[in-house]
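Exercise 7. Given the encoded structure of a 121-residue chain, write a plausible sequence.
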């Protein structure tokens, strides 16, 4: 059974920490820093400020993409590439996420082509 993409994986050492300011590392390099995050049980996500590296400047990452959090160096690792993240549907700050086409589109995007929870080879 697949894990919920909107919840941290059981294997991730989350510690209910404030992740604001943590650097976010894709499979192929840094994508920015956490500007905001939610740690709701089934609605957890990261809003990442890309510092202008990605058009739109902010991306939303479901918490289920997080593979590891290194609290000592304040770095979060996700199991997607920068290209996959850049190709995600646009995130619009201030729009509600629950029960919206945007949330569904994000889920579909991040799950397409790769079974959830299975890291790329």
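Solution.
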């Amino acid at each position: 059974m697949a894990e919920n993409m909107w919840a941290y994986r059981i294997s991730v050492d989350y510690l209910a920490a404030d992740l604001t300011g943590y650097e976010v590392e894709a499979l192929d390099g840094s994508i920015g820093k956490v500007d905001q995050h939610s740690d709701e049980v089934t609605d957890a996500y990261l809003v990442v400020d890309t510092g202008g590296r990605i058009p739109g400047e902010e991306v939303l990452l479901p918490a289920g993409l997080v593979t590891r959090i290194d609290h000592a160096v304040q770095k979060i690792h996700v199991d997607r590439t920068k290209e996959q993240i850049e190709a995600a549907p646009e995130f619009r700050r201030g729009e509600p996420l629950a029960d919206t086409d945007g949330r569904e589109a994000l889920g579909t995007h991040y799950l397409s082509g790769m079974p959830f929870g299975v890291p790329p080879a």
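Remark. Confidence is low (pLDDT under 50) at residues 115-121. Students should compare their own answers with the one above.
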